Structure formats: C-alpha cells, structure tokens
Amino acid sequence: MHAQIFTYVIDLPNQEDYVAQFTDPFAAPVAAAKGLYSKVWMADFDQKFASFYVWETKADMEAFMASEIIEQVGQLPFLKSLIITDYPVVEDASRITKGIR
How crowded is the C-beta side of 12, counted as CA atoms within 13 Å? Predict the structure, then answer.
C-alpha cells in the first residue's frame, strides 16, 4: 500500500463554496479511482486544508496522479500552495492501529 498527504490553501469565502466548488465536483470521481483504499478530507475552513489518501499500490497512486481529475484540480484558481508527499504504508503496524483493515 501507498499513502499521500496533500496540503493546500483554499481561497473561497465560506464552507458552502468549498463544498459546492471543491468537494461536490470531485468526491465521486476520486472515489471511483482504481485502487483507492480511502480518502479523508480535512479542513478548518479558514486557511488549513488537507487530504489523506491510501492506495492499494504505488502504481494505482501514480495512475491517479496522471489522471484528468488531478489535471482539473491543479487548474482551480482558488487552490493555492499545494504540497503533495507520498510514503509507503507500514502495513503491519497500521493494521494494529486500525489505519487499514
């Protein structure tokens, strides 16, 4: 398994705009991505936003990163300061702590 952390700033005036312009258009297409184990959306609805992804394989993650969804997200004018990091998942320990099944 492989994991990613996206951190970013969303320059939108309120939570309703965040949902309408960011989560609503992208949640279902992301959920349909091959090999996605889970995605967690995180936000303080001020300036701090993040997403945490777990993928079945690194190849699945790489295919997602080369997808049209990521291209569209990268062009959003209100998405700023995007930083993406990825790591192999330590599966045995993550099962113990309920991070994966």
Answer: 21
